[in-house]
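Hello Y.,

Per our agreement to keep a running log of every chain we model this quarter, I'm adding this entry. I've kept the format consistent with earlier entries: sequence first, then predicted structure.
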Amino acid sequence: MSDMLSQQDIDAMLAQTAAGQSLSGPEIDTLGEIGNISMGSAATALNTILGRKVRITTPEVTLTTMQELVDSHQMPYLVVNVGYSEGFSGHNLFILKLDDVKIMTDIMMGGDGQPDLEAELSELHISAISEAMNQMMGGMSTSMAEMFNRMVNITPPVTNVVRLSDEQLQAVFPDDGNELVNISFKMEIEGLVDSRIMQLMPLAFSKSLVGELVGVPEPPAKKPEEKPAPAPAGPAPQPAQAVNARPISLPSFDEPGASQAIVENSIDLILDVPLLITVELGQCRKTIKEIMDINVGSVIALDKLAGEPVDVVANGKAVAKGEVIVVDENFGIRITEVLSAGKRIRLAK
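Predicted structure for the entry above:
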């Protein structure tokens, strides 16, 4: 027999060594795939918020301890604590570099992504990145719900600028020497950021995720063999009677007036369902910075000209247009045009 190791054996040994032999190679691969899919949804949410192409990929799974993190990461970081309110029981910490946060919040506030990296993060910046992380984590929970086929909800993310040695982190992950799983992701924001995000979770929690996703059931307990019950005494069962089956007769939808009758009968069932009717004077788009600058006396320009017909909206869908009038000192609207079904569908798109 040859003493040479195959490449597969070498890869398995390296994977076990890199994970401190507390995670197997397949477990590391599964955690990486869970993180890759989840962070893919988070990247999609961040792409929508920033209006720039965002890629969060290439997870690297390693084991560490709180003390090792403290020793190797002395500078302050933005730390987001995310817990689960439904579906799982546990916590995740997401750790971002402050420079990356400053770039993202600058874009969110209407900047060009070139902030003063020496400036401190303001409360406004923290509020903006908290909202961004909230939407990113919402995307992640949706992905995990699909992966694990269950309802998954998260608690509101708690965002703070801290050092990894602060007591705020020790309360979440006490420094008791237990190992933590560190999943490090590569994050790229088009033309501005090429960095990494860290996700920390307890080793036991990560193993439970792998076990549930892989679906390794516990062996069922053996039951004592039971003897078949004797047949009850009595007359022999009678054979089943023949069933008279025939195809059902339905009206043809091709007959003139058949579909119209069905529609009318169906609409009768919902005629008393209430709908919320609103009138839109117009719309506009503002950045977070512009909204925060609004004060008493500020003027917001809308996308409609003075005297132009306003939209009548039912449950968020435009159904008509009209002109504003005054009725007994109250505002009202006189309908000038009822939108056709085709036009309503085009506006809804």
